Every structure is written in structure tokens, then in C-alpha cells.
Design the sequence.
């Protein structure tokens, strides 16, 4: 998170190592030291914010750009610790109320402005899906009071995941974490200084240094262990990130870490920049992060800060001090605040989207808004005399009032839209329980429905499709989790036929439908799901911990299947899963072989397998189009959204013991595929089916399962 400590900006980025004198004017002692100017730190801010922004705009091109946030943590630790230590040595203490009041004046105006904007947008159904409103409001409230990181940690959000529906304010996790640092850090320094004075003969600085080393080391160990054991919340937990602030703090407190030697500074600075570039292009969503891997961008940022020599124009300190870099550094805080909500909101805006042209235009708009916010909000608020001329508590109380006002606007957005939200939820429930005749897939599969026309009807409504998903998330493991979690549904009779549903998220999307099928037919249903990890024996091309976790999960799942004797296994998989081509002519051939190998293990035991050709995959969620345009205008070209070489189809064709279902003609005609079939909204996002639509395929799924088990003889092979 780019801190808005612009009193720590170019004019005050000074070395903290020199002694200060008391200033009788009453002005904060942290401004009293005439130290050396370090403008390259402002340029480092520019690198950090550009990494984050470009990663969010083009995650496929800059897959590790999220490390920019780690760079900001190091910068904040360096700057804040230096300023606090100067005041501590000059006065023997820290004016906490004054310190926190300055933080509030510099951070809250821009932050609350963006939160207010988000509250108004998400409360406008024309601009934003209504189904997201409860989560949006909760996270806006959490962000307003600087606990968004804990909200996400407790809800196990995966910040780096490629799926899911991130909120407009999810990026406030880092701002919340940094504000918690601003509260805790001066208290830690004060406590350490007090111990140094009272117990160690006035060794204040040494005691502070020991305390920071201890906190940094403990935090790093905690971070590594927590990332291994529970990676999703580990990304957000405050104590797991304190070590990164501590690394910056150590540079501020240990003069020998600030390299002024020409050659040493040159090599160190460019090595730090190279480390940041390396992580930005090589890290991705599967990198175990933060964990020990976060040490690379953290130490890279520390190296750039420590490189202090600026004698030559080609030194990194001079390059990062150029006017364009310092300009981006100046607006980095507002740029960070604005870019993410605009990315989330843009595809919902009528006649807008996230094509390459839209992205470039939106990026330019982000810079404009950031500059305007810096010029007319951030800068004036820093010197607003109605606050600066009064005691710090006036600023703090005013800040609390402003936060309450933003929270009230967010609550008002919920109050206004709550009736419509409840109506939408009820409509989904009613449609599932009592669907219209010829609804959904039946309009294509049932010849008697050929003349039925649903017109412009879309159920569930586009604003609620994202909420129409299976609810049993505890059955769906993700990330580096290798546990073969099984869930049991259907009837309790141990003698009842058993169906196993196994695979990735495209198998999980059928869970609610298969649960109903199991209950209606008197079957037991057992599930095994892992996100982005189909039931196969071919490894993913994805490197690192995630690919290894997928392989391990498959082994564990195979052991579970060996212990059971199901009557039939059903599996589904995303057609665009990236498989390794090692040992084969192509990744497609490798995928086909992997599916057949996995299925053969069951078939050889006399267990039939049923699978299905994958549904079309869209570049953008078609609901964003359906909210503002007609059904026909939102159709996609068949060759653009449908995989003609689905490896599941090719693996199943001609393989004894495998039943293949193909609903391509339900989704598509010869030229295009529609997001609405028979009045049913097909998708809840870019590639996952709504439960409402999947339910309309239930008769076909049930018939295939019965046939594979030999219960009607019509589909056995």
C-alpha cells in the first residue's frame, strides 16, 4: 500500500542517522534535523505502485506485480522509524496524539473519498450487480475502520486467486494493515526506549534496535509457518507482515546499512531493482506468498533504499530521482486508491468493458483522478488550518466523525436496496423449487418445447447470477491444500448405490444439482473437489507449489477411491486447464492420456465413468452485458468461447466403460453461443454455470448415471 506520508516525501526523505536538536518553536522535532535528501525513495514508490497497478490491469503479463505492496511496507518502515527515532532522541518521547493526527490528515481524506465513491456506485444496481451488495457493504465498513485485512483473513479470501468476485475495496487490506502498523510501531519503540533508559543505563537506541530485530525475526518465522499451513489468511494477517516494516526500520537505524561507497551503492541499487523486476515477471498466483519468497522483493526494496550514492547520472539513485519517477511517486497513494475500484466497476458500466483499449483509457483515467485527488484533496488537507491550528484531538475526533459519515452512506446504500436484494434471492429460490415448463435446457432437449418462447426473461436476474452457486464451500479445497476432503450427501442407507462426483470447479458447480439427483433416486453422493485440479494423471504446466499440490491431491484422492467401491464416478473439467506436454507431442495429447489413465484405474475395477464436454468459457462475465443489454447483443461467437478440442471429449470417445455427455447444442448454434437458454441464465461468471441452469440438465445427468450403472440399460457401453 503506497503510504500517503507526503510530509515524508521528497522534501523530507532524510537520513535518520544524525543527531537532532530540540526545536523551541513547538514544531515537531522530527522536522528539525537538516539531514541528507533521499529523492530516490520517491522513485521507488513509483516502481512499487506501477507494479501493483499494471499487475491488476494485466495480470497475465505481470504475474508477480503484487510484490509492489511489499515494497511499500519496506518504505514505510524506513521512513516512519527514522522520523520516530529522531523525535525520540530529541525529546525523550513521541507525541502520539500529534503523530496519529498527522497520519489521519494525510491518509483519511483521499481514502474516505474513494470509499464514499464505492458506496454510491455499489448502491446503484444499474452500475453494479445487486447480489454483491452485502459483501461490498461489509468490506466498505471494514475498510472505513481499517480492519479490512482482518475481515479478509477471517473469511479466508484468496487475494491472488484467478476466480471469485473481488470487491471494489479489497485492495484496502494493505492500507488497513499499514494503519495498524502506525498504531503499533510507535508503541513498540516507546516501550523499548523506556526499557533502555530504566534498565540499561540509558541505552535507548540500542534497546529500540534490539526490539525491532526481535519483532522482525519473530514476524518472519510466523509468516513462513503460517503461509505453509494456511496460505489464504496468511496474506493479510498483520503480524505476518511486520517483518517487512522491520527490514526498512533497520536500514533507518543502522548507519552501516546505508551504502555510500560509489561502486557498492551502484551494484546494490541495480541488484535491488533487478530483484523487483525478476519477482514481478516470475512470481504468480501459485507462488507460496508471502512466506519465505517474500524475502526477495523485500530485500530488493531494502537494497534500493540503502544505495545512497548519487554521484553519477547512471546510478539507480539518480535514475529514480528523475522528475517523471518522482511525479508518479507523489501521486502513488491516490493512484493506488483509485485504480482497483475502477477496474472492478468498469465492466459493469454500459458500453464499457476491459478490452485492451478500455484498459488503456482506464489507466489514463486513473492517473488523472490520482493527480486531481493529490492536488485538491491530499495537499489541502495536510495544511487545513481549522485542524492544524488546534490540538491533535480535534483532528482525531473529526476523523472519527468523517468515518462514521462514510459508514452511514454505505449503510444507507444497503437500506435502499435491501428490498430488491431480498426479492432477487427469493426469485432464485422459487425458480429452483418450481421452474417453468420447458425452462432452460429443456427448451432445446425436449422436442415438445420447440415452440415455447421465453422472450427477454432471464432467471436468475443478471444482478443475482453470481450468488447462484453451490453453498458447500467446505467441500472444495483450493490453493496448496492437498487434503482429499470428502463430503457425503443423499440418503443415509449404506446399501444404497454410491455416486462419486470428482474434479475441479467445473465438477463442483454441479454439486447442488447432483445432491438433488441423489435424494430423488435414493443414492449416496460422495464428492472430491480441488480448484483448478481435474481428475487426471498428467501434471499441470503450472510450476511451483500449486502444481505439486495438485499432483499430491490426486494421489490422495486415488487412495480414497481405492478404499471405496462406488457404483459410478462422474467427473468434469475445465477445457482450458494448462497441462504439461512432457513426453507427448502436445499438451492436448498429454491431457487426453492423463484423463484416460485416471479413468482406467476405476474402469479396471468395474466402476463405470460418466463425464461431460465442457461448457463455453467467456472472456468476461456475460452478466455484465446482460444487465444493460438484450440477450442477443450479449451472445458470443462460437469459435471464441467454445473449445473445439476439449481433451475430455477426445479422451472419452471410443473408451469402453465411459459415458460421454455433450450439451454443446444446448449452449450454442452453428454460429454463436448464448448466455441465456430457455429463459435460464446459464452463467454466474466467465465459465461457471448457475445452479438454476445446471438443474435443468438434471434429467440428462440422472439418465446417464442410471444407464452407466445398468439400471435401465440404455446408456451402458
Sequence:
Amino acid at each position: 500500500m503506497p503510504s500517503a506520508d507526503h510530509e515524508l516525501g521528497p522534501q523530507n526523505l532524510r537520513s535518520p542517522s544524525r543527531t537532532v536538536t530540540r526545536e523551541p518553536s513547538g514544531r515537531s522535532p522530527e522536522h528539525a534535523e537538516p539531514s541528507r535528501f533521499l529523492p530516490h525513495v520517491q522513485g521507488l514508490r513509483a516502481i512499487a505502485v506501477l507494479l501493483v497497478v499494471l499487475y491488476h490491469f494485466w495480470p497475465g503479463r505481470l504475474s508477480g506485480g503484487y510484490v509492489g505492496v511489499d515494497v511499500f511496507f519496506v518504505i514505510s518502515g524506513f521512513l516512519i522509524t527514522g522520523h520516530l527515532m529522531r523525535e525520540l532522541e530529541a525529546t525523550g518521547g513521541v507525541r502520539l496524539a500529534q503523530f496519529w493526527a498527522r497520519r489521519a490528515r494525510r491518509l483519511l481524506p483521499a481514502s474516505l473519498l474513494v470509499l464514499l465513491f464505492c458506496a454510491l456506485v455499489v448502491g446503484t444496481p444499474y452500475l453494479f450487480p445487486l447480489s454483491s451488495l452485502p459483501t461490498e457493504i461489509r468490506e466498505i465498513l471494514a475498510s472505513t475502520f481499517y480492519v479490512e485485512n482482518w475481515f479478509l483473513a477471517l473469511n479466508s479470501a484468496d487475494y491472488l486467486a484467478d476466480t471469485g468476485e473481488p470487491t471494489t475495496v479489497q485492495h484496502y487490506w494493505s492500507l488497513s494493515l499499514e494503519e495498524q502498523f502506525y498504531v503499533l510501531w510507535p508503541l513498540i519503540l516507546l516501550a523499548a526506549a523506556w526499557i533502555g533508559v530504566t534498565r540499561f543505563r540509558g541505552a535507548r537506541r540500542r534497546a529500540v534496535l534490539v526490539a525491532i530485530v526481535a519483532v522482525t525475526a519473530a514476524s518472519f518465522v510466523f509468516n513462513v509457518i503460517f503461509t505453509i499451513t494456511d496460505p489464504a489468511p496468511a496474506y493479510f494477517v498483520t503480524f505476518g507482515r511486520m517483518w517487512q516494516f522491520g527490514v526498512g526500520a533497520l536500514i533507518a537505524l543502522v548507519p552501516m546499512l546505508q551504502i555510500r561507497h560509489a561502486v557498492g551503492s551502484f551494484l546494490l541499487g541495480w541488484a535491488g531493482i533487478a530483484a523487483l523486476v525478476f519477482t514481478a515477471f516470475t512470481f504468480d498466483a501459485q507462488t507460496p506468498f508471502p512466506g519465505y519468497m517474500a524475502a526477495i522483493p523485500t530485500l530488493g526494496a531494502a537494497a534500493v533504499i540503502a544505495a545512497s550514492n548519487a554521484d553519477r547520472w547512471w546510478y539507480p539513485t539518480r535514475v529514480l530521482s528523475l522528475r517523471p519517477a518522482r511525479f508518479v511517486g507523489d501521486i502513488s497513494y491516490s493512484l493506488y486508491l483509485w485504480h482497483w475500484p475502477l477496474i472492478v466497476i468498469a465492466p459493469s458500466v454500459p458500453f464499457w468493458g476491459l478490452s485492451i483499449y478500455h484498459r488503456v483509457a482506464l489507466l489514463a483515467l486513473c492517473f488523472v483522478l490520482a493527480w486531481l485527488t493529490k492536488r485538491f484533496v491530499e495537499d489541502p488537507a495536510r495544511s487545513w488550518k481549522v485542524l492544524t491550528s488546534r490540538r491533535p484531538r480535534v483532528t482525531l475526533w473529526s476523523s472519527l466523525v468523517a468515518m462514521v459519515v462514510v459508514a452511514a452512506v454505505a449503510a444507507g446504500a444497503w437500506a435502499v436496496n435491501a428490498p430488491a436484494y431480498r426479492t432477487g434471492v427469493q426469485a432464485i429460490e422459487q425458480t429452483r423449487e418450481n421452474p417453468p415448463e420447458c425452462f432452460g435446457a429443456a427448451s432445446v432437449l425436449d422436442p415438445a418445447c420447440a415452440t415455447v418462447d421465453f422472450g427477454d426473461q432471464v432467471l436468475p436476474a443478471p444482478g443475482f447470477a453470481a450468488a447462484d452457486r453451490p453453498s458447500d464451500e467446505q467441500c472444495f479445497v483450493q490453493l496448496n491444500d492437498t487434503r482429499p476432503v470428502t463430503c457425503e450427501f443423499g440418503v443415509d442407507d449404506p446399501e444404497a448405490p454410491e455416486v462419486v462426483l470428482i474434479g475441479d470447479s467445473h465438477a463442483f458447480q454441479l454439486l447442488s444439482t447432483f445432491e438433488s439427483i441423489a435424494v430423488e433416486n435414493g443414492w449416496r453422493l460422495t464428492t472430491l473437489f480441488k480448484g483448478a485440479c481435474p481428475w487426471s494423471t498428467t501434471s499441470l504446466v503450472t510450476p511451483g507449489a500449486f502444481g505439486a499440490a495438485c499432483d499430491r491431491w490426486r494421489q490422495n484422492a486415488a487412495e480414497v477411491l481405492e478404499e471405496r467401491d462406488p457404483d459410478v464416478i462422474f467427473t468434469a473439467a475445465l477445457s482450458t486447464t494448462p497441462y504439461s506436454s512432457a513426453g507427448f507431442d502436445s499438451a492436448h495429447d498429454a491431457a487426453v492420456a492423463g484423463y484416460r489413465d485416471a479413468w482406467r484405474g476405476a474402469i479396471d475395477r468395474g466402476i463405470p465413468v460418466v463425464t461431460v464436454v465442457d461448457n463455453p468459457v467467456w472472456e468476461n462475465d456475460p452478466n455484465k452485458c446482460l444487465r444493460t443489454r438484450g440477450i442477443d447483443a450479449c451472445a458470443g461467437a462460437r469459435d471464441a468461447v467454445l473449445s473445439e478440442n476439449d481433451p475430455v471429449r477426445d479422451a472419452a470417445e471410443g473408451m469402453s466403460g465411459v459415458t460421454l455427455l455433450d450439451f454443446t447444442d444446448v449452449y450454442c448454434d452453428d454460429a454463436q453461443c448464448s448466455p441465456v437458454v430457455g429463459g435460464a441464465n446459464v452463467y454466474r461468471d466467465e465459465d461457471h454455470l448457475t445452479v438454476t441452469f445446471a438443474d435443468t440438465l438434471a434429467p440428462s445427468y440422472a439418465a446417464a448415471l442410471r444407464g452407466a450403472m445398468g439400471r435401465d440399460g440404455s446408456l451402458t457401453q
Observations:
- Confidence is low (pLDDT under 50) at residues 6-37, 712-717.
- The first strand starts at residue 476 and ends at 477.
- The radius of gyration is 29 Å.
